[in-house]
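Today's session is about reading a structure prediction critically. Students often jump straight to the picture, but the first step is always the sequence itself: look for stretches that repeat, for charged clusters, for runs of hydrophobic residues. Only then move on to the predicted structure, which in these notes is written as discrete structure tokens rather than atom positions. Here is the chain we will use throughout the hour.
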Amino acid sequence: MTRRVSRWGAACLVLPLAVWVSGCSLFGGDTPKPKELQALTSAGTARLLWSSRVGSVEFPLAVAASGDRFTVADSSGTVVALRAQDGGELWRAQVGDKLAAGVGSDGRFAAVVTRNQELVVIEAGQVLWRKAMKSPVMTSPLVAGERVFVQAVDRSVHAFDAQDGRKLWELARPGDALLLAHPGGLIPYKDTLVVGQGPRLAGVDPLRGTMRWEANLANPRGTNEVERLADVVGPLVRVGDLICGRAFQSAVGCLSAARGSLVWNRQNAGSVGVGASPELVVGSDALSRLTAWRTTNGESLWTSDEFERRQLTAPLVVGKGVWVGDFQGYMHWLDTATGKAQARLQAGSSPIVTAPVALADGTVVVVGKDGGVHALRSD
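Below is the predicted structure for this chain, in token form.
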């Protein structure tokens, strides 16, 4: 029997061939109240630039930023490209089915995966092609080099020609008794595709699908399969030659993609990805306590518990600040030097469900569970 563990389900579902368990239900018990937000004493400010809206988001959405646009999607299968400057709609498409994963885009092609396990690729608002996937997908596709890369829940990786849907290669990994139904890691590095494979990161030749290197992000320990579950979760972050990320409920660390070797890792039990810059890596643990480590060597820089149990998103490091969203629709801006909150604004009334993403000009976009798309900037 194959078993999958997910933090997106609300209950345990027992199926003939799979068991899906929510991340929350792994631990059980009553949930303590989130920490109340404290009054800010700093002089920092954050501005809401514009808001737009799609339908509700009930799946692991990633916002795709490219050039001067963002591409988003909702659960119903609507995919929308928006101008970063003002939120103006560039195009809108409907794929005809509810979504399980998305969206990936290089600015020209956009890709999503439906609940019926179909990969759908769109160009300028028109569906170009569809391909059936053999396994469920929860990780947003990666579109790069006129190719579409898809990572399935079983952590197999598939490559397709972006223009015509021709399958180029498939890289499967040995079956595990326990799989994590959670967005995994998929990121480009120069001429290498870096993917999460269980607790490891693997460098893959994007043209042939052959393995170039493997390195452990975490070394799972435990007496049973659940305790040893330490799959890499997204988003991964590239900082120069380093790829930094998280292994589920296990560790945070950085690897050298040039050498294919671990630089450092630190124990930290969490389930969402990290943010990073050349100076620091920031991650949120299972209790929403934020920790910063020095990017080059993993030295601990600071820890903040002012957002305990506020169900934080993955952080985003922009300049001298760290952006992170919470379950009440607040976006928080922290000082990278101290971890102290400098500013906050309520982007919407529903939980922020995407990791913040940014363009070169500092515009940051997030999406709420109710479909609110919000662009903001710190001063």
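Discussion point for the tutorial: The longest strand covers residues 46-53.
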